[in-house]
Design goal:
A hairpin with a 4-residue loop joins strand 7 (about 190) and strand 8 (about 195-200). The protein folds into 2 domains: about 25-55 and about 305-400, Aspartate Aminotransferase, domain 1, CATH 3.90.1150.10; about 65-300, Type I PLP-dependent aspartate aminotransferase-like (Major domain) (Aspartate Aminotransferase, domain 2, 3-Layer(aba) Sandwich), CATH 3.40.640.10. It has helices at about 10-25, 65-80, 85-90, 95-105, 115-130, 145-155, 170-175, 200-210, 235, 265-275, 275-280, 285-300, 305-325, 345-355, 385-400, and strands at about 40-45, 50, 110-115, 135-140, 160-165, 185-190, 190, 195-200, 215-220, 245-250, 260-265, 335-340, 360, 360-365, 375-380. By secondary structure, the protein is α/β, with parallel strands linked by helices. It is built from 15 helices and 15 strands. The strands form 4 sheets. The protein has a 7-stranded mixed sheet, with helices on both faces. Strands 1-2-13 form a 3-stranded mixed sheet. The structure holds pyridoxal-5'-phosphate. Pyridoxal-5'-phosphate binds near residues 121, 193, 218, 220 and 260.
Length: about 400
């Protein structure tokens, strides 16, 4: 071995000490290894079959035969890798087809794919804004948007700001104070992932329109989930096609592999294609993933009953929890958080549930506010009533053991 010995390497010493601290604080994450496809029931290494209640596989498409076959055909048609950055030699026809499908789904003129929604979010404001502009973000937006704001400030030198969660009077005041800014961009999650709550899109759009601001919605937990046909938050409110810019992921309801996209005007997508650093300096989405994601969108378009099933399953599970005596956060999305208070309580509950064959993750501070640790259940259209009943029985046993119900 060469290099600075670990004992005198300050970085190594620091991170080892921090890892020890994570373990002492009970916040060290252990990983559970799966030996089968992501599905309502999976085979977990060392445990056998468990029911998953914490995946973003909202429509049950991760192991759908049609979606998987499309991925396999993708490798036959386009090979294993893109082998370069897209503008140099990595664009395949499947990318173009996927992007047309994304735009069609969310109701914009165009879309551009990225290797993740994280990348899409980071690309957007840093590429299109300038020092004459401002971007304002909801306080509870996803971490990728928080980092996107930091990048925009550093790279585009635009003004950035945060408005109180869902408080559009606060946003109104901040936009009024920014009237001299040439471009005013407002960003919000469509569905807030830790609460499972839906943005008040009509009110948000009103404030944006009043100030001539553009609205950017991150619909990662809403695409495939909200609206009659799973077209997202805008469809849910009857506002499909009225949001200026939508970013979303291919890594949740749409097959769950990876990838994300920016959807908006043709000029916006063209400009990002020309100038966004996460387009210009990194390989394109693998063709296999583009192919399976495209198939997932087509399944969603032809089988909207999956969205209905997701809604019915969520209602069934939520009612089941309520009748057991739990108090899940109210809401209309398949994210059903059960608040437990301290982080250790949430971790303990998720450990006991796993012993009962139900995999659901506990979240504590700093992911959620202090004292609001929770287990966050996520329901899938793929869950059967038997899966949900078995999960509810486990909640009942663990809840009684922990004296929660
Ligand atoms: C609101 C939101 N935006 C972006 C992302 C990132 O998506 P991806 O996994 O495609 O990077 C997530 C994933 O958790 C998310 O919840």
């Amino acid at each position: 071995m060469s290099g600075v010995p670990a004992s005198s390497n300050a970085l190594e010493q620091r991170i080892v000490a921090q890892l020890d601290q994570f373990r002492r604080d009970g916040v060290y994450k252990s990983f559970n290894y799966l030996e089968s496809p992501q599905a309502p029931r999976v085979r977990m290494e060392g445990r056998g079959q468990v029911i998953i209640l914490s995946s973003n596989n909202y429509l049950g498409l991760s192991d759908d035969p049609v979606v998987m076959a499309a991925g396999k055909a993708g490798i036959d048609d386009f090979g294993a890798g893109t082998a370069s950055v897209r503008f140099i030699c990595g664009t395949f026809t499947i990318h173009r087809d996927l992007e047309a499908a994304c735009a069609r789904l969310v109701g914009t003129a165009a879309a551009l794919s990225f290797v993740s929604c994280w990348n899409a979010n980071e690309a957007l404001p840093a590429t299109v804004l300038t020092d004459r502009d401002i971007v304002l973000s909801d306080q509870l937006n996803h971490a990728s948007i928080i980092d996107a704001m930091r990048l925009a400030k550093a790279i585009a030198k635009c003004e950035t700001g945060v408005f109180k969660h869902g408080d559009y009077a606060d946003l109104d005041a901040k936009l009024a104070a920014a009237s001299d800014r040439q471009v005013k961009l407002v960003v919000s999650d469509g569905v807030f992932s830790m609460e499972g709550s839906i943005v008040n899109l009509p009110a948000l759009l009103d404030v944006c329109r009043k100030h001539g601001a553009l609205l950017w919605l991150d619909d990662s937990h809403a695409t495939g989930v909200l609206g009659q046909r799973g077209r997202g938050t805008a469809e849910h409110f009857g506002l499909h096609g009225q949001v200026d810019i939508i970013t979303s992921t291919l890594g949740k309801a749409l097959g769950g592999a990876a990838g994300g996209f920016v959807a908006g005007s043709s000029a916006l997508c063209d400009y990002l294609m020309q100038r966004a650093r996460p387009q210009l300096f990194t390989n394109a989405l693998p063709a296999t993933v583009a192919a399976s994601a495209l198939a997932a969108i087509e399944v969603l378009e032809t089988e909207p009953e999956r969205v209905t099933m997701l809604r019915e399953n969520t209602h069934y599970f939520r009612q089941g929890l309520l009748s057991l005596g739990f108090r899940p956060l109210p809401g209309d999305t398949p994210i059903v958080p059960v608040i437990l208070g301290e982080t250790a309580a949430a971790i303990r509950m998720s450990e006991l549930l796993l012993e009962e064959g139900v995999f659901v993750t506990g979240f504590g501070f700093p992911v959620v506010p202090q004292g609001q640790a929770r287990v966050r259940c996520q329901i899938s259209a793929g869950h059967t009533r038997e899966d949900l009943d078995q999960a509810l029985a486990a909640f009942s046993r663990v809840g009684r053991r922990l004296e929660l119900i």
